[in-house]
Amino acid sequence: QSVLTQPPSASGTPGQRVTMSCSGSSSNIGSKTVNWYQHLPGTAPKLLIYSNNQRPSGVPDRFSGSKSGTSASLAISGLQSEDEADYYCAAWDDSLNGRWVFGGGTKLTVL
Amino acid sequence: QLQLQESGSGLVKPSQTLSLTCAVSGGSISSGGYSWSWIRQPPGKGLEWIGYIYHSGSTYYNPSLKSRVTISLDRSKNQFSLKLSSVTAADTAVYYCAREDTAMVLFDYWGKGTLVTVSS
Lengths: 111, 120
Prior knowledge:
The complex is a heterodimer. Chain A contains no helices and nine strands. Chain A is an all-beta fold. In chain A, the strands form two sheets. In chain A, strands 1, 3, 4, 7, 8 and 9 form a six-stranded mixed sheet that branches. A three-stranded antiparallel sheet of chain A has the order 2-6-5, with no helix packed on it. In chain A, a hairpin with a 5-residue loop joins β7 (about 85-95) and β8 (about 100). The radius of gyration of chain A is 13 Å and the shape is globular. Chain B is about 0% helix and about 55% strand. Chain B has no helices and eleven strands. Chain B is mainly beta. In chain B, the strands form two sheets. In chain B, strands 2, 4, 5, 6, 9, 10 and 11 form a seven-stranded mixed sheet that branches. In chain B, strands 1-3-8-7 form a four-stranded antiparallel sheet, with no helix packed on it. The N and C termini of chain B lie far apart (about 40 Å). The interface of A and B includes residues 92, 98 and 100 of A.
C-alpha cells in the first residue's frame, strides 16, 4: 500500500489532454513539494516535474504539474505515443521521523 | 552526464544478506549538496525509499527498514553500497540507486535498476 494514492491506469488518444492525480496527506503533499517521474520499464526513471509545477530543462511544456491542498496532478497535453509509460509522484513525508514516499504509479496507455 | 549503475547478486536466499553496489560515473560522490539513495519496487507495486547517505558519510534510513539496512560509501571507487539483512520473499524487488539534489529536494539521476529475487 503506497503512502501516496494514484489511479492505476489512464488512457488517451494522440493529441488529447490527460490528467492523473496523486493524493496524500498533511504530512507529505499538504506541506511539502511534489515531484513527478516518468518511467519506462527497464530504463532509469526520469524527473518530469519538480517543486509541484517546475519542468527540468529538456522536458516539453506539454507536461505540467499542479498542487492543491493534499493532492497534486500531472497533466499531459498533445498526447504522443512516446508518452506511454508509468508515472509516479513523490514527496517527503514528515511522519515516522521523515522519509521519502511515492505513489503506486499510473500506467498511461496511448490508444 | 552523471550515470549510475547498480550491480550485485540477483538471487539471495531467505535470512541471508542482500548486497548491492551503485557505481557512479561522470561526477563525484564526494560533491557537496547531494545525497545518494536506494529505492526499490516490488513486482506489481509502487516505489519504496530505503535510505540515503550524504557525501559526508552520514546516513538516514526509512524507519520501516532501519533495523536491517546499512548504506556505505567507497570514495576511492566512487560508489556506494546497500546491505539488507535477514531478507524474506517480501524483499524481492527491482532495486534502484539515485542521486538526490538536497537543495532542490528531488531525485535527478537514477540507475536502470537491478532485480533481486529472494528464494531458496
